[in-house]
Amino acid sequence: MTGVTGPTGAREAVTRAHHEEWARVVATLTKRFGDLDIAEEAAAEAFAAAVEHWPAEGVPPNPGGWLTTTAHRKAIDRVRRENKRDDKHQEARLLSDDEAPEPVGAIEDDRLRLFFICCHPALAPETRVALTLRMVGGLTVPEIARAFFVQETAMGQRITRAKAKIKAARIPFRVPDAQDLPARVSGVLAVLFLVFNEGYLATGPDSDPVRQDLTAEAIRLARLIRTLLPRDGEAAGLLALMLLIEARRTARVAAGELVALDEQDRGAWDPDLIAEGHRLVRERLATGQAPGRYQVLAAINAVHTSARDYRDTDWTQIVALYDQLVRLDSSPVVALNRAIAVAELDGPEVALAAVDGLADRLDGYHAHHAARADLLRRLGRSGESRAAYDRAIELAGNTAEVAYLTRRRDQLA
Fold it and tell me: Which UniProt keywords apply (predicted)?
């Protein structure tokens, strides 16, 4: 035992193990049993067993191994129950320790295998992302539902149907061949970015404002994909984007409150991550190839992290990059971010007109109301600004962001 005992220490250990080991346990069981439902249920039961046993028995020296072994036993119990009246030969095959060697694929990480099965082309794009966030990222259904702006019940049904389709279609738990990887990687990149975003600005009201476990895992997997596809511009762009955002993590939250970009201590930014991100951006620019969405986003963040002070930011270049991004991604969120940059270049009145033009499509998005509140504040329209802050606070899910918005609202005259 590690010596960690008592309810508080055990709960912290279970929480930490869930952050670090969930994907590994689910991936291991999925590979072994070929069934996402079995893997997810057994993993959940193993963590429930940890909650029960670790406070009294102490946290094991290898929590991941304990959880995997326990989950494996739970899975075997379920298989035996389900096969009680069915084909005994099938049960024997599933429970046998003798397995045929698996062909060596391009990637040997079981969690990436799990990514690829969840991102299989047989599933709709939005379903691939939701399923992967649940099975690999370990996010809860409510967290995923907030990311998609849909009801929790609808998201739960979407994930359940996706698992059923994988099982019915007998989609294999293996990595695509090297020649098929470029066509399959775009869905994985989308999932990685959402996992990263959930970690960087967690939406769960009871979770930490920043979940470094998720950002670190997303970056780790992005590095593997970058190594696998060294010529893929978007894989490099996504990694650069994550690194440049992650570099600012320690300066993003102070005393439980979000710190806006113009107030951050830039001396606290990680210079090594910034240097690596800038290098990746320069390498992509040097190829002369037309950049994709992640590469443009990385370039925008490279401009931000190049400025020694907020007042030194090259807003002309940033707006030009957003103009390029709008041609690749016409979503209202991109238009909102462009308007925020325009405010620094052309003033808050011009930006407010653009933001108000997005009201119909972004009424349920807290950042839209937060942007309106700030622009109205800068224009001296305090009453309207307060109402916009109230709406943003109502919609925001991140505790640090709520604290920041509340302070800004209360500072209004």
Answer: Sigma factor, Transcription, Transcription regulation
For residues 350 and 174, what is the distance between their CA atoms, to the nearest angstrom? 51
Amino acid letter at 54? Answer: W
Residue 224 lies in a domain: yes
Q: Is residue 104 part of a domain?
A: no
Q: Are residues 118 and 200 in the same domain?
A: yes
Residue 235 is assigned to a structural domain of this protein: no
Average pLDDT per consecutive 10 residues, the chain (413 residues; last block may be shorter): 64 87 91 90 93 90 93 91 62 48 49 87 85 83 77 94 91 81 82 84 70 84 85 95 96 93 96 98 94 97 97 97 97 97 97 97 96 98 98 92 96 86
* Domain co-membership, 322 together with 342: no
Q: Are 348 and 392 within one domain?
A: yes
Element at 253 (helix H, strand E): strand 253-254
Q: Which residue has the tokens 């016409």?
A: 330
Q: Is residue 102 part of a domain?
A: no
Tokens of 91: 């049960």
pLDDT of residue 94: 54
Backbone angles phi, psi at 352, to 5 degrees: -60, -40
- Whole-model pTM? 0.74
Residue (of 291, 347, 369) closest to 323 by Cα position: 291
Per-residue exposure over 98-137, b if at least 16 CB sit within 10 Å of its own CB, e if not: eeeeeeeeebeebbbbbbbbbbbeebeeebbbbbbbbbbb
Q: Which two tokens stand for residue 200?
A: 């960087």
Domain that holds residue 25: 7-95
Distance CA 299, CA 291 (A): 10
Q: How many domains does the chain have?
A: 4
**CATH number of the domain where residue 385 is located:** 1.25.40.10
Paired tokens of 95: 């429970």
DSSP-derived letter for residue 176 is P
